[in-house]
Amino acid sequence: MTHHTHLPIELLSVRGNKVLDLLPFRQRAVDGAVLISNDFGDHLFLSNDEYKAILHGDLANDDPLRDRLKAGNFLARELDRDAITARLQEKYRFLRAGPSLHIFVVTLRCNHTCQYCHASRARMDQPDVDMSIETAERCVDFAFETTSPSLTIEFQGGEPLANWPVVEHIIEYARQKNALAGKSLMFALVTNLSLMDEEKLAYLIDRRVQICTSLDGPADLHDGQRIWKDGKSHDTTVDWIHRINQHYVEAGMDPHLYHIEALPTITRQTLKRGHELVEHYANLGCRSIFLRNLDPFGWGAAVKNRLGYTMEDFLAFYRDTFLHIVEMNRNGQDMVERTAALLFSKIIGNVEPNYLDIRSPCGAGIGQLAYNHDGRLFTCDEGRMVDRSGDDCFQIGQVGTDNYREVVSSPTVRSMVMASTLEGQPGCANCVYKPWCGVCPVHNYCEQGSIHGRMADSTYCQKHMGIFDFLMERIHRADPFEMALFQRWATPRGQPHYVHEAEAL
Ligand code: SF4
Ligand code: SF4
Predict the structure, then answer these.
(1) DSSP conformational letter for 101
(2) CA 56 – CA 346 distance, rounded (Å)
(3) CA 297 → CA 196, 323, 448, distances in Å?
């Protein structure tokens, strides 16, 4: 891998009179071509000869490559500065508002003992791990201090339905506050569905709460990982997936846009069964799947040996499953792979999806906050999980005592912003994927002992570099069907049904 920017303009100009006023770019060999990108997020594939020609400034005035460079905003004198300024303002719009995602851990209790989740749960009979009504109100008060015009409260756990009265209370209290605050308010619930019943569901549908669940694949795979000693986890989950989707259909809502979201956790057992996994999702009416790797932090050696895998193995799984998803689409089955969709929206859609973990700077403290059941505040949910293993370095305050401004501008948040701003990271600053990538200080801290990572031997970078290389190769080789598919994935559609504007209650 080589990293260097363009030759200085003065050097180019002495090579001949066809001066190319190239703006800084980064490059990498991909799929037999040279990929170049700039800070605005544009890219071009060049042949080796074209690349040499631009390095030497050796390009005739009527060479069509000039037009491609101009269209890609690589030529300083041809740049439409107003258009670029507007684009960058849009791309970094998130910097002008405070945290929009507020993760509420309403309890640590859970009736499942999933193999990969020992650290973040408590037994159902364990006391003192539920959020109280009083703490819940202080958390909502704190969340409403955000300067962001949109505000999502996401219920997490443990299993949030194990503390149902507090979930309900938070929703009602937040709606009341919003009558005055007038934010675009959304609620999301991450649940294993095992404690769902018709009454709760009717309430959640009525309050337009987005519902997300976990589904690890066919029954044997799912039940082997998501252990529930009092029931059949897979069958229960699937049953509720059907019922919830049916509610949306009966309400006349577009099933492409409104359906329960399901997320798989990919373990070593999943790696051999990628095709089966996506087909299982498709058969259940799911139209997207998020192929995310598992971060095995804080695991004992035994669990790691049973569930863990190398990043090479994950990338091989990702590539193979992605290609299968493209084939399914070719055969008429709608299915989106969400990591690719996120990255395509940045690379070819020119849209910033504001996904907080692949963004520069990342969302820690400036895009999201996590609220522990006891009212302690963390930079993000991953930072809270580090606290569960006994290290509170990502704690940034306590609701009820600490002031919003002090929390979001605390030294910890500032450090996280610095550590996740790619321009300041050796390795990333010169990487061709920098315009679309993001790093995770919590991951760096857990893997390498410092929030400032060493990208050369980081598995986080290895994953992103591997996925970017693969997706860029797919873009480079795409036939018209694939290009149209990728364009479709790159165009996010909003879900206005879930948004509560200030309502008269
Ligand atoms: S994390 Fe890796 S792939 Fe991403 S910008 Fe940094 S060096 Fe490039
Ligand atoms: S520190 Fe990591 S997990 Fe936390 S918001 Fe940043 S990228 Fe996400």
Answers:
(1) E
(2) 30
(3) 30, 29, 11
Q: Which helix (H) or strand (E) holds 371?
A: strand 368-371
Total-model pTM:
0.92
Q: Which residues line ligand 2 (CB under 6 A)?
A: 356-357, 362-364, 368, 379-380, 382-383, 416, 420, 440-443
CB of 200 within 8 A of CB of 161?
yes
Query: What average pLDDT does this structure show over 270-283?
Result: 96
Question: Between 253 and 436, whose confidence is greater?
Answer: 436
Span 286-308, mean pLDDT? 81
Q: What residue spans define the domains of the chain?
A: 9-91
Measured from the alpha carbon of residue 359, the closest ligand is: 2
Query: What does 177-204 look like in DSSP terms, one character per residue?
Result: HHHHH--EEEEEEE--STT--HHHHHHH
* 3-class secondary structure, 163: helix
Percentage of the chain with pLDDT > 90? 75
Residues 6+ apart with CB under 8 A from 319: 470
Helix, strand, coil percentages, rounded to 5, for the chain: 45, 15, 40
CB-CB neighbours of 310 under 10 Å? 11
Q: How far is the CA of 440 from the centre of ligand 2 (A)?
A: 5
CA angle 140, 338, 285 (to 5 degrees): 95
